[in-house]
Amino acid sequence: FTGMSSSKLWLRVAGVSGATSVAAAAYGAHATPHLDEGFRVAFNNGNKLHMVHSVVILAGAGVVRKMRFPATTLGLFSAGITVFSGSCYAAALTSDRANGKLAPFGGTALIIAWATLMA
Predict the structure, then answer these.
(1) Which ranges of the chain would DSSP assign to H, the alpha helix?
(2) Is the model's pTM score more than 0.85?
């Protein structure tokens, strides 16, 4: 990534995140019907926030010069997706709620990321 502009980096992050969110949605549609309803809901919540915030990173890549703290904001969105959605996916796919214990930290990162846009 040396020499890459900030907006190009975040465009790539958005591409990876968006592609993995679609792959997770496809996997969830075909591999989770046997799961308990609560775990399917957890998987789908994780996937919904994964998709929405992937688009937010894409939009942020386009306005990086207008943001006060672009690396912080977009980094928090990325971390929030990883931790929140990853926890939801892990809990659902293992049918073990203990694997979702990090979701609140990911959700907090997403909230803080949104709040940085007000600065």
Answers:
(1) 6-31, 37-62, 70-80, 86-94, 103-116
(2) yes
